[in-house]
């Protein structure tokens, strides 16, 4: 037989590497049952990928599987890049029941879930009843192959469920920080300046660094200031509004404390510094600007902590 040339070998090897998934695709099309679709959609493990990965990846994956399974059960995902928009009829019908139940049981640490209507019927029972009826109607009026016209509603439901998970995680994180503060006798201000601030910003830091390294420095720079503005305006505004509607009409920041003036002054000086220095450099920022910002943050953190621990204080 004739031996293939180098060009033919490269073409054949490229085709095989690109069409790896074809080996696992059935030759004849077949309709999967609803039970099969549900079990496949709820499986967070890819067995082919599991066999190829090293042992430490498998150990880390074993810890992630319970969390991923809970998220798959409660958060619907609409993917516009797929032909079927990630429509899984049995799983999406289950989401109609689990996502509202998640919202009720996680809002204010499950306080609303314990309420009873007329002192007899619990709220979570009403949510399960209404969700079961809606899930049954959707299951009867839809098919496994084609998503319904109202499939976009599941995207909003997924956003709401994701927000509830983030809210629950943030609540538990604050409780852990308060516990650490009680154990080590640290005030809420110190915890907010250090652990909570770092945990809240470290994700943005890595994402901004990644965008800058990939050639999008203006996007990273805008995200830095956009995140600060969002936290100040929406975070403080919404937090004060919720506090006013729940118990107190006034949120007091203790203006007599020196630390409050240090926080406000440091924030104002940093914004004024950027407001003056960035146009002065013709909006072409170098390493000196970044070094100055880092040194300014370290100086601010030292002064704030020394003030909180009464090393720096106003004389009587």
SSE arrangement, N to C: HHHHHEEHHHHHH
Poorly predicted ranges (pLDDT <50, ≥5 residues)?
6-20
Strand order of the largest sheet: 1-2
What summary fits the major beta sheet? Answer: 2 strands, antiparallel
Helicity, in percent? Answer: 55-70%
Radius of gyration: 27 Å
Broad structural category = mainly alpha
Tell me the strand percentage band: under 5%
- Average pLDDT: 81
Describe the structure.
This protein is mostly helical and 316 residues long. It folds into 3 domains: 32-185, no CATH class; 188-248; 254-315. 69% of the residues lie in helices and 1% in strands. The protein has 11 helices and 2 strands, in the order αααααββαααααα. The chain has a two-stranded antiparallel sheet with strand order 1-2. It is globular.
Q: Which key phrases capture this entry?
A:
about 325 residues, 3 domains, two-stranded antiparallel ribbon, about 0% strand, antiport, NCX_ion-bd_dom_sf, NCLX protein, membrane, ion transport
Question: Any chance you could write out the topology, listing elements then pairs?
Answer:
Layout: H1 6-18, H2 34-41, H3 47-52, H4 55-74, H5 89-106, E1 116-117, E2 121-122, H6 123-141, H7 153-184, H8 188-213, H9 217-246, H10 258-280, H11 287-308
Antiparallel strand pairs: 1-2
Helix pairs in contact: 5-6, 5-7, 7-8, 8-9, 8-11, 10-11
In short:
GO terms for molecular function: calcium:sodium antiporter activity. This protein has 316 residues and is mostly helical. Helices cover 69% and strands 1% of the residues.
């Amino acid at each position: 037989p004739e031996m293939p040339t180098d060009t033919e070998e490269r073409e054949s090897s490229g085709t095989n590497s690109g069409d790896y998934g074809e080996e696992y695709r059935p030759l004849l099309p077949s309709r999967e049952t609803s039970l099969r679709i549900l079990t496949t959609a709820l499986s967070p493990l890819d067995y082919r990928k599991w066999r190829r990965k090293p042992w430490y990846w498998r150990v880390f994956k074993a810890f992630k599987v319970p969390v991923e399974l809970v998220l798959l059960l409660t958060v619907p995902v609409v993917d516009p890049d797929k032909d079927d928009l990630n429509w899984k009829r049995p799983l999406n019908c289950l989401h109609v029941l689990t996502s509202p139940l998640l919202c009720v049981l996680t809002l204010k640490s499950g306080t609303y879930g314990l309420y009873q209507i007329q002192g007899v019927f619990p709220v979570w029972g009403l949510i399960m009843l209404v969700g079961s009826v809606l899930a049954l109607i959707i299951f009867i009026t839809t098919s496994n192959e084609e998503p319904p016209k109202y499939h976009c509603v599941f995207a909003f439901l997924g956003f709401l469920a994701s927000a509830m998970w983030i809210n629950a995680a943030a609540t538990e994180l604050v409780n852990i920080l308060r516990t650490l503060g009680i154990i080590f006798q640290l005030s809420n201000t110190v915890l907010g300046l250090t652990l909570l601030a770092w945990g809240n910003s470290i994700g943005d830091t890595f994402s901004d660094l990644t965008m800058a390294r990939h050639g999008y420095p203006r996007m990273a720079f805008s995200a830095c200031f956009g995140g600060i503005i969002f936290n100040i305006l929406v975070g403080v505004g919404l937090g004060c509004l919720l506090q006013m509607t729940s118990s107190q009409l006034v949120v007091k920041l203790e203006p007599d404390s020196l630390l409050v003036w240090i926080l406000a002054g440091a924030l104002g000086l940093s914004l004024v510094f950027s407001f003056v220095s960035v146009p002065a450099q013709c909006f072409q920022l170098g390493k000196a600007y970044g070094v100055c910002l880092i040194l300014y943050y370290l100086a601010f953190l030292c002064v704030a902590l020394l003030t909180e621990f009464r090393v720096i204080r106003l004389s009587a």
